[in-house]
Amino acid sequence: MRLVALDTLAERIGLKRGQGAAEARAMCPALDVIAADRAADQAFLEGLADWCDRYTPLVALDGKDGLFLDITGCAHLHGGEKALVSDVLSRLFALGVEARATISSSAGLSWAVSRHGHDAVIGPEEADRVLAPLTVAALRLPAETATALERVGLKQIGDLLEAPRAPLARRFGPQLLLRLDQARGRVDEPLSPRLPVPSFSAERRFAEPLQDEEYILELTRHLAKDVRASLERQGEGGRLFELLLFRVDGRVFRVKAHAAVALNDAGRIAALFRERLQAVHDDLDAGYGFEILRLAVLRSERLDPAQQDFSGVPDESQPLAAFVDKVSARFGPDCLMQARFAESHLPERAGGFSPIRDVAALLDASGPEGGAFPENRPLRIFAHPEPVEATAEVPEGPPRSFNWRKTRYRVARAEGPERIAAEWWIDGENHPTRDYFRVEDQEGRRFWLFREGLYEREVSSARWFMHGVFA
């Protein structure tokens, strides 16, 4: 057992990461050792990332113990860069989290100083001065590269700043110069946010925490009005909305609501979250209350203005969309399903059901969910073909009689075969071919059977299956 993380007091008494637990206890008999839980640490770090959304939506994870925040254009909302750093660290300390933070013009410089230095805010012209006394490990280099640099006497970043670049690249590889240029701000290093950035958003911050659900819904309606103004300016409507509730203890609740049609009406948007909050009521613990409420539009699309005609009859899609939104918000997005066609010539893969996401596509027969019902197909097709015992006069001919579900049927008429080859890119090249027959028994009942495998070419003895019935 070895130490993988230390607090400040453990570092002061001389303990190090990677040190054996027995040796550490010999140095400090009162040492409190807790078993490491990487899954819990990752969940805690993601919870902190959610909490940091109050400062900027551009939050990226940095390994197992760090976060990157792109605060471009956000610092003035918190009183400047120094005030923002102070607010972040003081709030985290109040939550029981000891953290270090640095603001600079590059991610590499912030990483180096926050982990190996002490500056809080660094100007673009101060990069070389701040980096010079730091060890080469502050450049995010592999351990073997940092060790090789120290062996030749290049222990500080200042030693690299003065050294010729070509010999460094030949001996230690191009990554050394890349990391150095990233830390100095000469090479751009874009951040990848862990969550998609909303197209539009509006928020309210409260002096006193909120707990009443009705008041939260009323504020959601006011936020929807602010979002509507932004959507109207762009001529768009929201399809996926998210309500973020920041609790005072640092936990963040994310409630998403999907709209069946593009929306910019504040009342309709608020109604979506009324249903969603009722559905997740037991999982939404207000605790000591929420201090920030934010409404974001995660996905939007073009919304053309429409005017009701003189008949007073509304668009047929509006009542249906309202019904779909209400039911989906209450019972989940998969509670309403619609039939769909798929790009496959195998009957069991050519159709299925999918959640209703777009009412316009549902009403439009030529839309992506539309299409014509295939000809010569039964009204009922089994999801899994059922084996039958069939007898044919000739190997390649239709069946004359068959046993299915403990009942014997005699065939009066038959049509076929309709040959359907296997999808080799899914089932493999050796999957047998099917010959489908439409048969009618002496009682007038019609069935859809297929013979699997071609005689003397794929199989020696073919098998028969029932795949559907016509009536």
Automatic annotation (TrEMBL):
Known function: Poorly processive, error-prone DNA polymerase involved in untargeted mutagenesis. Copies undamaged DNA at stalled replication forks, which arise in vivo from mismatched or misaligned primer ends. These misaligned primers can be extended by PolIV. Exhibits no 3'-5' exonuclease (proofreading) activity. May be involved in translesional synthesis, in conjunction with the beta clamp from PolIII.
- State if Nucleotide-binding is listed as a keyword: no
For whether the record's keyword set contains DNA damage, the answer is yes
State which Enzyme Commission number(s) the record gives.
2.7.7.7
Q: Which residues form the UmuC domain?
A: 8-114
Q: Which organism is it from?
A: Sinorhizobium sojae CCBAU 05684
DNA polymerase Y-family little finger domain residues are 199-308
Origin organism lineage: Bacteria, Pseudomonadati, Pseudomonadota, Alphaproteobacteria, Hyphomicrobiales
A GO molecular function held by the record:
damaged DNA binding
Q: What Pfam families does this protein's entry cite? A: IMS (PF00817), IMS_C (PF11799)
Cofactor(s) needed = Mg(2+)
Entries under InterPro entries matching the protein: DNA/RNA_pol_sf (IPR043502), DNA_pol_Y-fam_little_finger (IPR017961), SulA_CellDiv_inhibitor (IPR050356), UmuC (IPR001126)
> What name appears for this protein in its UniProt entry?
DNA-directed DNA polymerase
Write out the catalysed reaction. Answer: DNA(n) + a 2'-deoxyribonucleoside 5'-triphosphate = DNA(n+1) + diphosphate
The record's subunit annotation is: Monomer.
Instruction: Tell me which Gene Ontology terms the entry assigns under biological process.
Output: DNA repair
| Keywords, comma-separated and alphabetical | DNA damage
**Catalytic EC class:** transferase
